[in-house]
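Try it yourself: sequence plus CO-5-methoxybenzimidazolylcobamide, in.
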Amino acid sequence: MGHKETIYQGILDGDREAVVAATKAALEAKTPAGEVLNEAMIPAMAEVGRLFEINEYYVPELLIAARAMQAGLDILKPELVAEGVEPKGKVVVGTVKGDLHDIGKNLVAIMVEGAGYEVIDLGVDVSPEKYVQTAIEKGADVIGMSALLTTTMPSMRATVEALKESGMHGKVKIMIGGAPVTQKYADEIGADGYGRDAAAAAKLVGQLIGK
Ligand code: B1M
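Structure, out:
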């Protein structure tokens, strides 16, 4: 098996060591980092997303695949920057104010990054002002908010309002998700999209920014 095939299979199997070793070997063999990303890692993560959507993979498989991919990405990152591979867009993600659940948000961040976007992760307990200010400062295309508590969901509406007030809504799109969140709620608060899971969120970013 070539290095790219090993990386692809390693991500599907959640085999972090195999992914790390094969990524290092690919770079040593002068394979461009962009090629490793676009021909091995992104297709592997897309396949993981597909398997998750058809219920062949569940959250644990998604998590270990995501961790394996993240370990490979960490090795590629400096090379990608050096090669000047332009990210397709920038996405600010975080869990909303008052909410400390971050497992789903972390998965979303990795899947979105795996799909070729730059992710700025603000962590947990993120205020509406912080999302909007960061998106403007960093020139982000999308704000992605996660909430796991019904009591913290209203903070999503407050962020939509804050973005509208800044005059940037439209230029910056808003996507939301998390177990208690629904498409209906997204429509109600004027968010631009709802992601049912991490794979759907990565797809949605592409739809929202047309890339
Ligand atoms: Co908490 N918790 N928790 N908890 N917790 C829930 C959410 C709860 C449903 C459990 C229950 O009672 N059945 C309940 C909420 C009830 C409600 O609001 N209706 C609850 C509660 C009440 C609480 C506390 C208040 C408990 C207490 O202290 N009394 C407290 C609150 C703390 C706070 O946030 N301020 C609390 C604390 C915690 C822990 C710290 C112990 C821990 C979090 C650890 C961590 O995240 N680092 C925790 C956990 C683990 C859970 C459960 C068990 C699991 C959540 C999880 O990680 N799921 C949860 C029960 C449950 O959901 N069944 C529960 C796995 C994760 C991969 O899924 O996050 O849904 P999820 O993400 C998915 C999708 O939703 C989507 O993609 C992900 C991957 O497919 N998605 C997005 C998520 N964000 C997205 C964003 C997008 C798009 C898609 O676009 C931006």
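One thing you can check immediately is this: Residues 3-83 form a domain with the Methyltransferase, Methionine Synthase (B12-binding Domains); Chain A, domain 1 fold (CATH 1.10.1240.10).
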